[in-house]
Structure formats: C-alpha cells, structure tokens
Amino acid sequence: MSVVTVQLGQCGNQIGPELFSTVYEDSTGAGRKTYQESSRERFFWETSDGVLVARSVLVDMEPKVISQAVAKASKSGKWRYGEKAHFCQKQGSGNNWANGYCVHGPRHKESVEDLVRREVERCDRLAGIFAMMSVAGGTGSGVGTFVTQCLRDMYPQAFILNHLTWPYGTGEVIVQNYNSVLTLSRLYQLSDALVVHENDTVHKICSRLMNIKHISIGDINKVIAHQLGSVLQPAYTGDSPSNYSRNPIGIDWKVCVPSSRGDSVRTGQMGFNRSLANLMILRGKDVSSADAGAFKDPALYVPWLPPDGTFSLWNSPVPFNGYEKSASLVSNSQSLLKPLDNMVRKAWNMFVSRAYMHQYTKFGISEDDFLDSFTTLEQIISSYSHL
Amino acid sequence: RTQSLIRFGQCGNQVGCRFWDLALREHAHVNKKGIYDEALSSFFQNAVLVDMEEGVLSEVLQGPLRQLFSTTQLISDVSGSGNNWAVGHHSYGSVYREQIVDQVRRAAEQCDCLQCFFIIHSMGGGTGSGLGTRVLKLLEDEFPEVCRLVTAVYPSAEDDVITSPYNSVLAMRELTEHADCVLPIENQSLVDIVSKIQHMAHTGKPGSVIKKDSTIISGQGGVAKTEKPFDAMNNIVANLLLNITSSARFEGSLNMDLNEIAMNLVPFPRLHYLVSSLTPLYTLADVNIPTRRLDQMFTDAFSKDHQLMRADPKHNLYLACALMLRGNVQLSDLRRNIERLRPTLSFVQWNTEGWKTGLCSVPPVGHTHSLLALANNTCVKPSFMELRERFVRLYRKKAHLHHYLGVDGMDVSGFSEALSSLTGLIDQYSQLDSTNTAPSQDPPRLNIAC
C-alpha cells in the first residue's frame, strides 16, 4: 500500500525531504526485512537500477526550495526525487492566500493534477494522499487548499490527509491568521484528516525535551518528520495484527494535536480536554506487554461514542529511528481548541479593522468569503467546546 | 525572478552605482571563482538609468561598471531640470515618455519573471523627483501587476535647494497614489551614521578597532577604485537594497520575497511608508573581544541610531514590522528576541503579533550576520508634518511658484491637490494613533446558531 505525498510551498518542501529521510533511515537501520519492504513500498518506488525514488510531487511558486530539496536528496545517494516530479513557478505567492488559491491554483491546475496522477498510477494500491503545507503563507496555504480540492474531485474515494504546520503565535507572517482561517475552513470540509504541528510546540520540544541550544528551522523540521514517521511507518493494527497494516491511518480524525512521546492526553489550562478518539502507536522492545489501560478510561472520552471506537492501539516490534522504545499518540480532542480559538480571535480582530483586505480583494477573495470562513470555524470551535 | 532597477537623476544614479558595485562584491565573495552567477546576472540586464543632464550618466559610462550597461539603457538630456519638479514631471515626462517605456519594456522582456521595479530617486530635486514619479505612473499603467518599490531620499530641513519642499510634496502625492512601497531615506540620518562610524574608527580606544571593509559605508573590495563624495552615504542606501533583495539572491531557511514584504507591511493602500534600519554598522576587528551578542544586534535595529530616517518608532505605533536576518543566525535567536523586544513596542490593536520574518544564510561582506528591520509605524507622521510645514511656508507666500506654473501641464490645482493628499495621509496616521489610547478590547466575535 502506497502513499503519494504532495509537498506544497516552502514549508511542505522543507519538511517533506526530512520525512522521506527519516522513514528511509528507519526502515534501513531496522534490519527487519518485512518492515523494510513494507515501508519502502509505502513511500518509494524503485527504478530498474535499484534507485529509490520518493512517491512525491513537489509544488511551489518559486524555485529555490524545491531545488534545494531535490539536490539534497540526490546528494545523499540513498533516495531521490523523481526527475519530473516537481512543478514550480518564479514569482511566489507573496504570502497571499488569495493569490495562491485564485490565481496560481487554477492557472496550474492541469500541470499539478498530471503530476499527481502519474504518481498515483504508479502505485499498485493507493493507501491515500498526504499533502504537506503550512497554513501561514501563500503557496502552501492557498495553492495547497486549491490542490486539495482538485485531489478530492479527482479521487473522491481516496483517503486524503493534510499535514499542517501552524506558525509561531508571536508572528512569523503578519497575515498568517487570515491565511490560516481561509485554509482551515475549507480543508475541514475537503480533507479526511488534518494533522497539525504548531511551531511553538515543536520549538518547546527542541528546547526543553531535546535541550537544543540554538534551534534552527532544520531542527524543527526534523522533529516534525520524526513524529510523522513514527505514525506513518508500518505497524500491526487492530484489523491486521500480524501483517503490517495496509492503511496507515486507522481512525477517522479531523483536527489533531501533535503527537507526544509517551505523554498522556494533554490537559490544557481550560481544564480537562475531552477526546473523541485516540490512537496510540508503540514501537520497539516489549510492545506486546505494554499496558495502555489508562488510555481506555471512558472518562477521557465523549459518552456518545461507542467505547470500542474511541481508542486504538497499534504496535510494531521494530524500534523506530534508533529509539529502543517509543510511543506516539495521535489525538482528536479539545487540545487544539485553544490554539484554534486564538487564531480565529486574532484574525477576527484584524478583519474588523479591514486591515489588508485590499490585498485579498484584488485577487478575488471578498469580505463575504472571509465571513463564510469565520462562520465555519466558529462552528467547529463550538462543536469542540461542547464535547 | 528578477527586479528592474530604474534610477533617476543625480542621486538615483549615484546610489545605483554603489548598489551595483556592492552587489558585485557580495556575489564575488560568495562565488570565489568569480563566475558570473545566475542570480546576479538576472539583475544586471535590467537596469534603466535616466538623468536629464549628462554629468552623472557619463561617469557611469566611463567608469569601471561601464561594461555592465549598454548605452541603450541610459536615457539622458542635456540641461537638467533646474530643480523643478514640473519640468521633470511634465516637460521631460512627455518628451521621454515613449523612450523610457520602451527601454523598460525591453528590460522587462529579458526577465523570465519580472517581480518588482526598484526605483531610486531623491525627492528634493527636479529630475529624480519629477520625472521619476512620472515614470512611476507609467509603470503602474504598463505593468500593473509588478510591484513598485521606491527608495526616496528626502531632503533635510537645511537643504540648499530652496524649492525642495515643493518638489518633495508634489512627488509625495504620486508616491502615495502609485507606489506599492516607499522607503524614505533622510540625508541627515545618513550623515549621522557616517559620522558615528568615522568617530568610532578614530577613537583609537583599545578594542574599538573596526574590521577592515566591514562598515556599511565601505565600498572597499568593490570594482570602483576611488571614493567619491557622498559615496559613504550612498553605500548605506545600497546596503539597504542588498539586504532587501538578499533572499531573492541567496538561499536561506526562511525566504522573504519582495512581494511578501509589500503584502505584509501594507495594511492599507496608502500607508506604505516604511522606516528602515540596518545593523550592524560595522564589525570590530579585534578577535579577542567577544563578538557583540546577537541580542545586541536586535536591540540596535530598534534604536534610532541605525535608522535611515529620523523618526521615533518606539514611542509611536507599529502597524507592522519585518525582520530580515542574514548569516549565522538561528531561528531560536530570532524568536527569543522578538519575545524580548515585543513588550517594549506598541503595536496596533489588530496586529499585536505583526511580525514578518526572514532568514537568509549568506551575510553581507565583512559580517557574520546582519539584520534589516522595516517598520510600518506612525512615527513617519512628524516628518511628513514637518515637510508639509515647509511647503506651506513657501506656498503661502507663493514663493517661486511662477517657475512651476510656467511649465506646460502644471497648474495650481497640482499644488493644492498635492497638499491635501499629504494632509489626508497625515490624518490617516493620526486616526491610527488615536486607537492606541483607547482601551483595547477585542471586538465581539461572530455569533453562530448552535
């Protein structure tokens, strides 16, 4: 079962190569044949000369990041990107969601669709499409949303998973909250699952858990890739206890909190965060004897879901990425409520003053479009608040 | 991706020369083999140089950078504009309109993707100010989708051109209406920076020796061998342009494009005047003295000593701020300093996290790292008010007005409209300032039916 990855914008094209490197190293270093084959099948295809090529399409509206990603992979000598697997333009999207969604997206729809189609057709069996992007900028968010829509139209039955990087709360792109609101309100309807990493949280992982003194963007990206890898690499699931799972994603979740290693469900300042569903993945030594009982406590979950649907446990005896034992938690809970609410609040404040509106309206996004997006997100916030 | 550089008048062309010289130096430093790299080549084809008298342009044609330009890229006349905006804008504007548009179009066609026009001129004279703003309008008409970024050198109060207030205010109206972004530069600020560096260089205090070629006024290592008057000041402006374009020319972990600058820093169309500050001004030579901590660099960027315009952003209201970091600086340094400095600054209520950030790996020559800050801040208001004052003082007495009104195409309404445009702009800043005093409360959120 294969996953086709679509890397969008600067962020998507920086994390993407890290993810492929992580899964490559993990499957190679593990020394377990079935695991390696399963992992490789999932993420790579092999040329006649035995070179591993990532099942990935790279999309950006400016060339520099893609060039770097492709060059770095080639230089590694371990795997590379497809020669014609990328699409880029020259002028960028200027951090403008409207420019990405209304102008670049439609303009290059066919080219991008062709590239994805080619990758999908190359797979024996498609597990799903994994789109990687940030929500703060212009290309990842704007073009990314448009492309997700196209993919949904092209493959209505396919499993589409979006990986979203949320920006620092203290600001990295001034219009980040606008771009995020416009993105999330649409992806919520289009995508099957949204996996979220917040830069702030990953930054704390780097500084507090890993004790990195001078944190670079590369460090952030590696942590994200590591966490994604630990979720996406093969594992024995409930439906498939002795074969590596065919479908990398076992539960239906929408907005997700970043996985944490070994932590229990995060309790926020608002009190307890109720979950809809949790997925725990244990890898390494003694996984079969691990006791995940605490995660099955019904008090953690909403009462109106059947108890056997709320908690899933996968495991793999293969240690992940050199860690003797590791645990990953993918959670659909209220944990993301506060960050989401903050983001909407700031975007709303800005919207009320009509700041930057002219930058969006000139490309075709109206104030009404903004209002619709806000409405959608307020409804999501409301739904999660009332869990 | 390319930018076209259009330089007007004496100031524009002199600054422009420093820009090319220092750009060559920067790329030569990175490409030790001296190979004409792709990033740089995209710049050089695309310059148009305009002056209405010959002196400066002929220097360019005879100078060491002459091979970079073909004569067709230069448009000139003989007698100059006599420091008269109307002559530049209307007379020469009409005469040379076609030629300039042609030349720009030709340059634009050579770009495989034209992203931005850089326009450089002074405000106080006749050609840069008058013809420059005429062409600005033309560019908007002919290339509406291409960003127009103007570096405008404003005269100081003691400027020796008496009519500079007229020229400046007439030009400002055009900038407000037709430019996407304006970086106002004040000669006095450049003078202050130059003297600060020279003072530092001559104190002879131990531990304060400046590393050779590391100041932002230095042109050493460039192609041009002799230093001309104003070179030091012009180098500062050239460095500003190098920093703004660094992300387009070199790689980095967080690219910051010119389009992104225009997008993030301009919340309302007319409020596009950005205060720039550059740091460091120089690097100390003595390796035994610990390099000034990175944090100091951030603090300096927010100090008035490093601004290219005399203004006080710290005591006024930020609408938006961009930080472009170059060199060996990490993300954590950037985030830490934003968090550290944020409480000392006032941001407008609807943009309390109004930061746009960029990281470029390659530092300027002679430095290990550098920082460019671009602030959209209401602190420009006092400078604009002062300019309006100077204008009104002349206008009230109708001093020298006949020189302008005698020019075909220029009439009194031009003056009154320019004045009200400036007044309107000042009012917009005032309105934003007034929001700062009101108690900040979040506006009520959307109420949705559950």
From TrEMBL, chain A:
The keyword Isomerase does not apply. Keywords: Cell projection, Cilium biogenesis/degradation, Cytoplasm, Cytoskeleton, GTP-binding, Microtubule, Nucleotide-binding, Nucleus. The keyword DNA repair does not apply. CDD domains: delta_zeta_tubulin-like. Gene3D superfamilies: Tubulin/FtsZ, GTPase domain. Signal peptide: none annotated. It is found in: Cell projection, Cilium; Cytoplasm, Cytoskeleton, Microtubule organizing center, Centrosome, Centriole; Nucleus. PROSITE patterns: TUBULIN. GO terms for cellular component: centriole; cilium; microtubule; nucleus. Transmembrane segments: none annotated. Pfam families: Tubulin. Residues 40-240 form the Tubulin/FtsZ GTPase domain. One of its GO terms (biological process) is cell projection organization. InterPro entries: Delta_tubulin, Tub_FtsZ_C, Tubulin, Tubulin/FtsZ_GTPase_sf, Tubulin_CS, Tubulin_FtsZ_GTPase. GO terms for molecular function: GTP binding; structural constituent of cytoskeleton. Belongs to the tubulin family. Acts as a positive regulator of hedgehog signaling and regulates ciliary function. This is Tubulin delta chain. The lineage of its organism: Eukaryota, Metazoa, Chordata, Craniata, Vertebrata.
TrEMBL record, chain B:
GO terms for biological process: microtubule-based process. Signal peptide: none annotated. SUPFAM superfamilies: Tubulin C-terminal domain-like, Tubulin nucleotide-binding domain-like. InterPro entries: Epsilon_tubulin, Tub_FtsZ_C, Tubulin, Tubulin/FtsZ_2-layer-sand-dom, Tubulin/FtsZ_GTPase_sf, Tubulin_C, Tubulin_CS, Tubulin_FtsZ_GTPase. The keyword Iron-sulfur does not apply. This is Tubulin epsilon 1. Keywords: Cytoplasm, Cytoskeleton, GTP-binding, Microtubule, Nucleotide-binding. It is found in: Cytoplasm, Cytoskeleton. Belongs to the tubulin family. CDD domains: epsilon_tubulin. It holds the Pfam family Tubulin. It comes from Astyanax mexicanus (Blind cave fish). Residues 32-252 form the Tubulin/FtsZ GTPase domain. Its main location: cytoplasm. The keyword Cytoplasm applies. GO terms for cellular component: microtubule. Residues 254-389 form the Tubulin/FtsZ 2-layer sandwich domain. SMART domains: Tubulin, Tubulin_C. GO terms for molecular function: GTP binding.
